[in-house]
Amino acid sequence: MPALYAAPGGANREEGKTCFLAIRAAGSAFPPEKRISFRDITDGNPQTLMLVEANDGNAVNWTKPDDYELPENPFDELVRKGRSGFIVCMCNGGVYRMSNEIDADMFRALSHRDDGKPGSEDEWRNFVEPLRTRDVKLVDVP
């Protein structure tokens, strides 16, 4: 498995599993019912989640097209033991460490591409720390 797909500190790295999953839900950037294009992300690419870092128990084989299906409590499958957040990637390529203190409704709104609730950047940015991918290799993030 390419190192790029390995989660930072992930226990499943040697098993060829990745914790970086696309969000698969109706209204997401990867809806189960059809393919979409960037023009379909009407809430804005910088304010729409594309990928999330799942916890080790939800890692998938990196060659299998498995995704993160948005559950009722979105954080059960994301937060790793001993961590206070998880990595997310927005549809514009922005990479952040998101705090698990973010409101579940706000997280769900950010997971939808076209619900008309892009969320105030001032609100959701209080729960993220930008990661500069050119300076930080994801496999080295603590």
Describe, in plain words, how this protein is organized in 3D:
By secondary structure, this protein is mostly beta strands. 8% of the residues lie in helices and 22% in strands. The chain has two helices and eight strands, in the order βββββββααβ. It has helices spanning 104-111, 121-124; strands at 17-18, 20-24, 49-53, 60-61, 68-69, 85-90, 95-99, 128-131. The strands form two sheets. A six-stranded mixed sheet has the order 5-2-3-6-7-8, with no helix packed on it. Strands 1-4 form a two-stranded antiparallel sheet. A hairpin with a 4-residue loop joins strand 6 (85-90) and strand 7. The longest helix has 8 residues, at 104-111. The two termini are 20 Å apart. The relative contact order is 0.22. Residues 135-142 have low confidence and may be disordered.
- Mean pLDDT over the full residue set: 82
Number of helices: 2
The count of strands amounts to: 8
Measured between the Cα atoms of the first and last residue, the distance is 20 Å
Identify low-pLDDT runs: 135-142
Which quaternary structure do these chains form?
single chain
Order of helices and strands: EEEEEEEHHE
Could you tell me the strand content as a percent range?
Answer: 15-25%
DSSP helix fraction: under 10%
Give the biggest sheet.
6 strands, mixed
**Shape from CA axes?**
globular
Write the layout of secondary structure elements.
Elements: E1 17-18, E2 20-24, E3 49-53, E4 60-61, E5 68-69, E6 85-90, E7 95-99, H1 104-111, H2 121-124, E8 128-131
Parallel strand pairs: 2-5
Antiparallel strand pairs: 1-4, 2-3, 3-6, 6-7, 7-8
